[in-house]
Specification:
This protein is α+β, with helices and mostly antiparallel strands and 443 residues long. The chain has helices spanning 104-113, 127-137, 146-165, 187-203, 221-239, 245-252, 285-298, 300-325, 330-350, 356-366, 393-405, 430-437, and strands at 46-57, 68-82, 89-93, 98-102, 171-177, 255-259, 262-265, 272-278, 371-375, 382-387, 409-415, 421-423. Helix 3 packs parallel to helix 4 (187-203), helix 4 crosses helix 5 and helix 5 packs antiparallel against helix 6 (245-252). The relative contact order is 0.20.
């Protein structure tokens, strides 16, 4: 779970803080189906976001049947969808310099090639369909670069949803993300969740809720389930055999418990402040996973208890978070969370997925009295640092400055927030709004 982020579809643009305010949009009605929205029938712009994710505890142990906790990040991917004035289907991904458009008539070829039959039960793209997508897009077989995978994912979801539910009108889609690429933070899943939500809404397969101004707007549970199913198909196209955790976090937000293939949302989860640090050290998830398996096979009496202990850490963390959410002995429970972070980081080093860059992160934040661990596959990548509610702003800023001096990227953010949501343009941070709505991004 979450250890196979591979090639992702969006990359970081700028690290501005995003206000978690979510505003409204009006529900549009189709003439023949009043409960459904069709973007081509009104001159409206809709903005959708989906969060990234971190693994709080359980990375690598989860591969061996142990519990892992995955939680949403308040770093997000944003998608703007609106009618296209010149009757085209446009895809703009300014993070990775992709700006493409097609005539809807040309895309009808793909709709006949990609027949999934049932919008409620999407199927995985087969090899013949993938070959058709590549041929149509002019992408050579074997190309796995970010731009190629992003385009293929869009074309598949557009064509499959159109075929299943009816022709999607001409539209203009722009996607921009705060999430760094290939860092294990679920950027590809956030992209897929945003696309699924936008295209299902554009086709009329799901409704759009009617929010009050400046309130968060979300779909109902059945519609979220459908968004998640289609986002999972996009993740399969990108990663081959993902666990489904990343897209589930992007859809529902909060925290999910993953164990033996079963994903369970946790109902009582506090919103925690963290520093998220990207060491920018690249690594191979496949190699790291294989290394842990090799250690387990060679030294089962030593490594198995370590994995059992990581499992116990995940379960204890779940219990402590529920206690914090209920307001019981918050200070005491934060101390326990810090101890769990320290112990788990040591365990991850023992099983061979640490890295000097992550050791420096832990050592540096410890000088400020803070506690850190890797998140994701390890071997570089990202780490998280827990911030108590009373951690002083000056200490946070000093930590961030020192980490940035090492060449790391660092954000202060929160975990445990909402999943895929609708926004109105005026609710967004001005920098985000400008990136999404400045026409220069669409040229």
């Amino acid at each position: 779970m979450g250890l196979t982020d591979g090639a992702t579809c969006v990359s970081i643009g700028r690290s501005s803080e995003v206000a978690r305010n979510i505003l409204s949009h009006r529900k549009l009605a189709a003439a023949s189906e009043p409960s459904r929205i069709h973007f081509g029938m009104a001159n409206k712009t809709f903005i959708i976001s989906a969060p990234g994710k971190v693994i709080l505890h359980g990375e690598h142990a989860v591969v061996h049947g142990k519990v892992a906790l995955a939680v949403s990040l308040n770093l997000k991917t944003y998608l703007r969808i609106q009618p296209c004035s010149d009757q085209k289907v446009q895809l703009n991904l300014p993070n990775i310099n992709v700006h493409l458009n097609w005539k809807p008539a040309a895309l009808q070829f793909l709709q006949s090639a990609i027949d999934v039959a049932d919008v409620l039960n999407p199927k995985t793209a087969n090899q013949i369909q993938m070959d058709q997508l590549r041929l149509f897009a002019g992408i050579p077989e074997g190309s796995t670069d970010t731009a190629s995978i992003s385009i293929l994912c869009f074309l598949y979801l557009y064509s499959a949803i159109s075929t299943s539910y009816g022709q999607i009108p001409s539209l203009d889609i722009l996607v921009w993300s705060e999430l760094p690429i290939g860092a294990g933070l679920g950027s590809s899943a956030a992209y897929c969740v945003c696309l699924a939500a936008a295209l299902l809404s554009a086709s009329g397969a799901i409704t759009c809720p009617v929010p009050q101004e400046k309130d968060t707007t979300r779909w109902n549970e059945d519609e979220l389930e459908l968004i998640n199913k289609w986002a999972f198909q996009g993740e399969k196209l990108i990663h081959g055999n993902p666990s489904g955790v990343d897209n589930a976090v992007g859809t529902w937000g909060g925290m999910l418990r993953y164990h033996a293939g079963k994903i369970v949302p946790l109902s009582s989860v506090p919103t925690l402040r963290i520093l998220l640090t990207n060491t920018k050290v690249s690594r191979s998830t496949k190699v790291l996973v294989a290394g842990v398996k090799d250690k387990l096979n060679k030294l089962p009496s030593i490594i198995k208890p370590v994995l059992d202990s990581i499992d116990a850490i995940s379960c204890e963390c779940e219990r402590v978070l529920a206690a914090i959410a209920s307001g019981i002995a918050v200070d005491e429970h934060y101390r326990i969370l810090e101890e769990l972070i320290d112990i788990n980081q040591h365990h991850l080093n023992v099983i061979g997925v640490g890295h000097p860059s992550l050791d420096r992160l832990c050592q540096l934040t410890a000088t400020y009295g803070l506690h850190s661990k890797l998140t994701g596959a390890g071997g570089g990548g990202c780490g998280l640092t827990l911030l108590r509610p009373d951690t002083s702003p000056s200490m946070v800023e000093a930590s961030k400055r020192t980490l940035k001096d090492l060449g790391y990227d660092c954000w202060e953010t929160v975990i445990g927030g909402s999943g895929v949501s609708l926004h109105s343009p005026s609710s967004l941070h001005k920098d985000i709004f400008q990136l999404l709505c400045d026409v220069k991004n669409c040229q």
